[in-house]
Design goal:
The strands form four sheets. Strands 4, 5, 6, 7, 8, 9, 10, 11, 12 and 13 form a ten-stranded antiparallel beta sheet that branches. Helix 14 packs across helix 18. The chain starts with 19 loop residues before the first strand and ends in a 15-residue tail after the last helix. The protein is α+β, with helices and mostly antiparallel strands. 26% of the residues lie in helices and 17% in strands. The structure holds CIS-heme D hydroxychlorin gamma-spirolactone 17R, 18S. CIS-heme D hydroxychlorin gamma-spirolactone 17R, 18S binds next to strand 5, strand 6, strand 7 and helix 9.
């Protein structure tokens, strides 16, 4: 056996060279922690030394014949696959869809027949513009892609967390994405739209105005994937057993309600925890607090489509829930994290054209273009046509076809038949088509072959206006501030002015405030609308996040700033009250090792004070002892903790002993968002106040503009 020096100082624990056992499943070693498999090459050859390459003498050159080294480095060099052109940064989880209302009258889709039946699902959430390593809290649309492994094949509902889109025709997608992603000469900015190219494109593409309002709203700053809606965006068809078609729009409604963070908070979260969203999902599922959404359908017919003032094939428009109510038919539960990020989340291949009998497309020109794009992109990304052989992409129902060969083929047809018709007879002849197979709805199509759009597509501002006017005043302020922020990063004054010229068609007050915020010298002329703006659409309260917030504080997290000597009874009461609410508590302490409470009991901390800023929490509690408060008053990050919680309108629960710290942070005039946490009985009232999530009344006081 080689000496320790020859091994480069590696210890016994790192080199498993103990008894070699030959078990059924291959060779195993007996090591300190138990029995582990013997390390092998990809060819299955056992490896004796994984610390040193093969050399001619201790100081000599590495030998080419070292097949283990060569294979290891070769494989490593090829570990990356191209990241997604869009939606590169994402996070996935497994779960199921459970039907709560049978839709057999509307669709023959197998998963919508039997109440209580569960269909396995895989969901991947994503941002759009940023690269794979970008931060989670970019201001961006979130992808909400759902793969449903039904008994009649995989159905992919590849949606977003916003119900409308930027463009109407797929031919503009490369332009939109080029403009949004980093500028080609300099290669930045990354994962943000606050730059000239993006707003240049938007301001020259009036159809994007509705979406522009949505992306400047808090919808693009979700607090968690668990607290956001999902939308199929396009109009689809449901087709029943008799061949009757209804139109449908798909909605996912989070059981925990909607919630977003403030812009300044998002910026800071990106620094404190760029993986904030993925960590949140991973932790929630790991804790058994399974995120859940309801599936809602808006179902309508041709008569409604004809009288609706917009075209139902236009993906830049939505149908207000007040016009066509959302019917809840099932629930989606995510209850299992992936075993391996790459194998599942990175390799999952969603395709809009993956639909199942009973569901069909419409002629939405964006959807039609997507149906081409997704298959194409998987070929490039996953390297061949056999990506359905990867477990996360494979159907979970039986499948049989004559497709064969290609890169990495794993299930080629067995036997002699690899074509049909054939005369090999019976089972030897292989699969045949069936009358139960997928049938396209026989929609009539007629018209001249031309590069055109339908007339109503030309209404670009009416729904943008409706969206803005449906927001609460707090949300309207956020939209205005977001426009001012983004356009302040645009270096070309003409582009700023052009955006304002469109806003004049949305809402005059909004345009004026944005112009003022930018310091525009003169108000531009309003943009020329292609169709008159409908100014009297009824507001749709369903479009507001704040009007549809949660009823409780479930699934949220309080960060408690604690020190040695923290009041044991108050801490216990807070923990209990949060647990009763289904919310979490994290302790933020001077040392991550934790603190001793007033009764001498030890509590481990989850964060050290300079690593656990308040932006990571939905509300905060400040529970130092008197000595602890004096100590924290000298710690800049403890003051930041409070200042940020205050500026982000969070509820602040505090012990009396925290006073010097609050004063040091300049918080000398507590408002109604400050709640006492001096006695155990205060805990319940604090948690009850937190149900409102934010003390919005404070926000106006802390913003100069
Ligand atoms: Fe996508 N989109 N998209 N998209 N999209 C992709 O497919 C595309 C659009 C959406 O988690 C790509 O596998 C075109 C709308 C999600 O893996 C690509 C058009 C909506 C995801 C592609 C659109 C989406 C993608 C890149 C205009 C919401 C991530 C990688 C016609 C309804 C799926 C990939 C995942 C991904 C093309 C517009 C949602 C290139 C051409 C509208 C959630 O195929």
């Amino acid at each position: 056996m080689a000496s320790k020096t020859e091994r480069g100082g590696y210890t016994e624990a790192s080199i498993a060279d103990q008894t070699v056992l030959r078990g059924e499943g291959g060779e195993t070693h007996q090591v300190a922690g138990g029995e582990v498999p013997v390390l092998t090459t990809q060819q299955g050859v056992p490896v004796s030394d994984d610390q040193n390459s093969l050399k001619a003498g201790p100081r000599g050159p590495t030998l080419l014949e070292d097949f283990h080294f060569r294979e290891k480095i070769f494989h490593f060099d090829h570990e990356r696959i191209p990241e997604r052109v869009v939606h590169a940064r994402g996070f996935g989880a497994h779960g199921y869809f459970e039907l709560t209302e049978s839709l057999s009258d509307l669709t023959s889709a197998d998963l919508f027949q039997r109440v209580g039946e569960r269909t396995p699902a895989f969901v991947r959430f994503s941002t759009v513009a940023g690269n794979k390593g970008s931060a989670d809290l970019a201001r961006d649309v979130r992808g909400f892609a759902v793969k449903l492994y039904t008994k009649e094949g995989n159905w992919d509902l590849v949606g977003n967390n916003i119900p409308v889109f930027f463009i109407q025709d797929a031919i503009k997608f490369p332009d939109l994405i080029h403009a949004a992603k980093q500028e080609p000469d300099r290669g930045f900015p990354q994962a943000q739209t606050a730059h000239d190219n993006f707003w240049d494109f938007i301001s020259l593409t009036p159809e994007s105005l509705n979406m522009a309002l949505w992306i400047m709203s808090d919808r693009t700053l979700p607090r968690s994937f668990r607290f956001m809606e999902g939308f199929g965006v396009h109009t689809f068809r449901l087709v029943n057993a008799e061949g009757r078609s209804s139109y449908v729009k798909f909605h996912w409604k989070p059981k925990l309600g909607l919630q977003s963070v403030a812009w300044n908070e998002a910026v800071k979260i990106n620094g404190a925890d760029p993986d904030f969203h993925r960590r949140d999902l991973w932790t929630a599922i790991g804790d058994g607090d399974f995120p859940e959404w309801e599936l809602g359908l808006q179902i309508f017919d041709d008569a409604f489509a004809d009288r609706f003032p917009f075209d139902i094939l236009d993906a830049t428009k939505l149908i207000p829930e007040e016009d066509v109510p959302v019917r809840i038919v099932g629930r989606l539960v995510l209850d299992r994290v992936v075993d391996n990020f790459f194998a599942e989340t990175e390799q999952v291949a969603f395709c809009t054209q993956n639909i199942v009998p009973g569901i069909d497309f419409t002629n939405d020109p964006l959807l039609q273009g997507r149906n081409f794009s997704y298959l194409d992109t998987q070929l490039k990304r996953l390297g061949g046509p056999n990506f359905t052989h990867i477990p996360v992409n494979a159907p979970k129902c039986p499948f049989a076809h004559f497709q064969q060969d290609g890169h990495m083929a794993m299930h080629n047809p067995k036997g002699r038949a690899n074509y049909e018709p054939n005369s090999w007879g019976g089972a030897a002849g292989g699969p045949r088509e069936s009358p139960k197979g997928y049938r396209t709805f026989p929609a009539e199509v007629a018209g001249e072959k031309r590069r055109v759009r339908a007339e109503l597509f030309a209404d670009h501002y009416s729904q943008a206006r409706q969206f803005y006017l449906s927001q609460t005043p707090v949300e309207q302020t956020h939209i205005r501030n977001a426009f001012v922020f983004e356009l302040s990063k645009v270096e070309t004054p003409a582009i700023r002015a052009r955006v304002v010229s469109h806003l004049l068609q949305v809402d005059a007050a909004l345009a004026k405030q944005v112009a003022e915020g930018l310091g525009l010298e003169a108000m531009p002329k309003p943009a020329d609308p292609a169709r008159p703006v409908v100014t009297d659409l009824a507001p749709s309260p369903a479009l507001s996040i704040l009007a549809n917030g949660p009823k409780d504080f479930r699934g949220r997290k309080v960060g408690a700033l604690v020190t040695d000597g923290v009041d044991a009874a108050v801490l216990a009461a807070l923990r209990d009250a949060l647990a009763a609410e289904g919310a979490m508590l994290e302790l933020v302490a001077p040392k991550v090792g934790g603190v001793k409470d007033s009764k001498g009991q030890h509590h481990p901390a989850q964060q050290k004070v300079n690593g656990g800023p308040s932006v990571l929490y939905d509300a905060v509690a400040v529970l130092p002892s008197a000595d602890g408060a004096a100590l924290l008053a000298r710690e800049a990050t403890a003051k930041d903790f409070l200042n940020d919680a205050y500026a982000h309108a969070k509820f602040i629960g505090h012990a009396k002993a925290a006073k010097p710290l609050l004063e040091k942070a300049g918080l000398t005039e507590p408002d109604a968002g400050f709640l006492p946490l001096d006695k155990p009985e205060h805990a319940k009232a604090f948690v009850a106040a937190c149900r409102k999530l934010r003390f919005w009344e404070r926000e106006a006081k802390v913003q100069a503009a």
